[in-house]
Amino acid sequence: MESNIGNIFLALLEGFGLIISPCILPILPIILTGSLAGSRKHSLGIITGFVSAFTIFTFFSRQIVLIFSVDLSFVRNISYGLLILFGMVLLSTKLSNLFSRYTQSFANFGLVLSENKKKDFLDGTIFGGLIGLIWTPCAGPILATVIVQTVIQKTTWDSFFVVLAFGIGVAIPMLLIMLFGNKIMSRMQFFKTHSELMRKILGAVIIASVFYMLYGNSWNLSFKQSVNIHQNKLIDGLSLSYPAPTIQGINQWINSPPLTIQQLRGKVILIDFWTYSCINCIRTLPYLKNWYSKYHDKGFEIIGVHSPEFDFEKDFNNVKNAVKEQGITYPVALDNNFLTWKNFDNHYWPAHYLIDQNGFVVYQHFGEGKYDITENNIRFLLGLNKTNIQVSHPPSSFSETPETYLGYARMNSYASPESIAYDQPAIYTFPNKLNENQWALEGPWKVTSQKIISLDKNASIKIHFNARKIFVVMGSRNVFPIKVKILLNEHPLENGKGKDVTQSTIDVGKPTLYEVIVQDQLLNGILQMTATESGLEVYTFTFGE
Length: 545
What we know:
This protein has helices at residues 2-17, 27-36, 40-59, 61-68, 72-91, 93-113, 116-135, 140-151, 157-187, 189-193, 195-219, 279-295, 316-326, 339-343, 371-382, and strands at 225-229, 242-243, 253-254, 268-274, 300-306, 332-334, 351-355, 360-366, 389-393, 404-405, 425-428, 439-447, 452-454, 460-476, 482-488, 491-492, 505-508, 512-531, 536-544. The protein is built from 15 helices and 19 strands. The protein is α+β, with helices and mostly antiparallel strands and 545 residues long. Strands 10, 11, 12, 13, 14, 15, 16, 17, 18 and 19 form a 10-stranded antiparallel β-sheet that branches. Strands 2-8-7-4-5-6-3 form a 7-stranded mixed β-sheet, with helices on one face. Helix 3 runs antiparallel to helix 9 and helix 5 crosses helix 6 (93-113). Strand 12 and strand 13 (452-454) form a beta hairpin.
């Protein structure tokens, strides 16, 4: 219970801190503008509606996806479009007058239905609820957190209160701005005499913020480069280190007997949360193996905590074979029940936690990258002399197709005209057109929460991608491998085939990550895979530069 209260309090602080995030900027002018038109009760109503709508929609987002087959990326784009529309209304005097005329009609209608005392709060609640729904899809990390909670079977009242606390944390500074902003606006003559200018500035802030959210990350993309780190200090270390959580609930160990943090006291430890079919995790392995080779005899240890994303990754033999194939020699712990994952309050694959000789977590990094910084910190904690560490970062593209899940629990960008028949056999057809990043099925398939299963020969799947490399997580339910035919833009795959492709086919056996396409440059095309018999299981497409 103590950890749950801590998570709720942390969510409250994270929500409060979001006031400085670009994601909140488009909402502040809208809510501030709405609050100026009403009373204090109206302002409280806006906050109540915002928190309620955000909390309910976020918590039940998975159920909404399942019931209505909603593509969250489409919803997010619609939300950005609505925010830009709000900004354009504020920028244009004509549109503002038109908007005011229509909203006044709604207000007059509300006046007929309710007394004046209730109107302000109710009106504000409806307005705030609308804003909450619009803003929720923009908060991608929160939706991702809910999905991870689903994966680890943690969608409970605890997670509901975590989301609620986050919403309240966001609302507190917004409420303060609304209440005090109202007084400032009423007392400062400048805002009265320049109301049209202020309205246009607010509109410009909304539009600029949306464009920053859409393209801000791409402005910071750097292509292949070399980073030189030679600082004899901890870089990007935690401002407040904390005792390393317990490694607990491990089903089995590979390459080592059971280990504990206490047992390794005096060593520098890197905890790596990974799963063997995750392409992002796989891309970190060369760095991990290199560090282990260079520093293990100097007091450095790595523990790869394998927390499975799919059910087949819980199988000991599957993980053991993957560890052998990847050439991993450091200890690997099978965290099938996510107990160690929960102890670290982790939410990502991959995730790295660096622990000093006294057993304190002093540095952490989520996702790929920052290998130079991580190695610098390993060397610093080991007390080694500073040296030049050069790391080449592969190029990346913000237009690359995102990871695409096929099971209905996290399904996105599905495009066949037929609705998904959950856990039931069904016949599907390809659409006339497949837009970029969309995928579709043809023939008999069964769609489950984690994967799709072919039910007869010639069952096919297509995806319209934009990437240089394509990987597919798939496996066979049968005793023998299943041949899968590969077509690229309706032609057999001859040039640029991945290492698992032979004569435009893949022999799919055990569930794992298969490399299908490797091109010299970014390619926009349509990949089609056709099973030659029933029993093919396909989990996800992942892409890389």
